[in-house]
Amino acid sequence: MTTTGCARVPSGLLWTLALVGALASPAVAAAASEPLAPASFHGLRETPSRLSLQLFAGPGNGKKSAPPELGAPTWVRLNLALTATWRRYCARPGVDGCGAFERLPEEDQVGDTSDFSSTKPYLGFALELEALPLAHRETSVLRGLGLRLGVQQGYSSSDVTLTGDGGQTPAREATATDTAFTAQALYRFYFRFGTTRPQQGYVGARAGLQTRAFDVDAAEDTPLSGTHRVYPAVAVDLSVPLFSSVRLDASGGLLLSPRPGHSPEADGGRRAQEITDFGTSVDSFGWCAELGVSGDIWGPLGYDVAFRLAHFRDRFTGAGTRTGWTNGGVAEETYSSLHVGLIASY
Length: 346
What we know:
Number of strands: 13
Structural class: alpha+beta
Largest sheet: 10 strands, antiparallel, barrel
Mean pLDDT: 79
Radius of gyration: 41 Å
Helix content: 10-25%
Order of helices and strands: HHEHEEEEEEEEEHEEE
Strand order of the largest sheet: 1-3-4-7-8-9-10-11-12-13
Distance between the termini: 114 Å
Number of helices: 4
Strand content: over 45%
């Protein structure tokens, strides 16, 4: 009995151990085939990898996917425009302004006066060339350095009369040409404007030489006076993008000593009469302004619509050859121009 009992006890223990081992063997095998520590480190590596992919896959984070900026500066910009120009001119003796003469008592309004206002616009063209050779170098401080060259010319005929002490002369038709040249150095500081898709705007300055000539046909017997000016000029410019295809352009400048009677070409002494008719010497001042819109049409082509003003005031001293101009006087000249142009840029 003792031997038999001893034999049954070990047999029950063996069966119990075998059952426990059978149940535990799949978990042990799985643990043995994939250790816990390596699996945990593998999971930590995958999480940052997926996050990194999401960060760099978004639009605009790489140089290749970033859209180009609108209105970026170009090397060359050519503007060919049709123009309509109106000219106003007045000359009054013994006063500092045309309006001051009209406020004098009637008995004091003595001497020859001139008034001209073009009834029809001077139709013509304007051609402007801007060159910025370092425009594409975004990191260069000389990026905005460039040159502007321009020419404008218009033609028209108008009826002219001269009023003096003897009354008013009969109206006579006068054919005239309005011509302007520009040669200026410029510098622009570019800035980004907008948030969703940045565009380029700029503020800048220009300085150089300009000419303005109003030529009357010498073959015609007319009292209309011409003017010829060569003068330094400075200006400031502003261009702000409003929409993807519309920019607001504005500028203002000073015309330094734009005295009449000066021309870059030989005149045979006729230009001197622009001073001697009214006095012995002249002191002149002027200003200019421009407001317009421009934008892109397709590819390198764009448009430009602008209104420009140029005003000159000439103060004469001494005795002139015209009646009543014994102590100088004043002459004022204003040009108003509408420009509608096509732009090609590279």
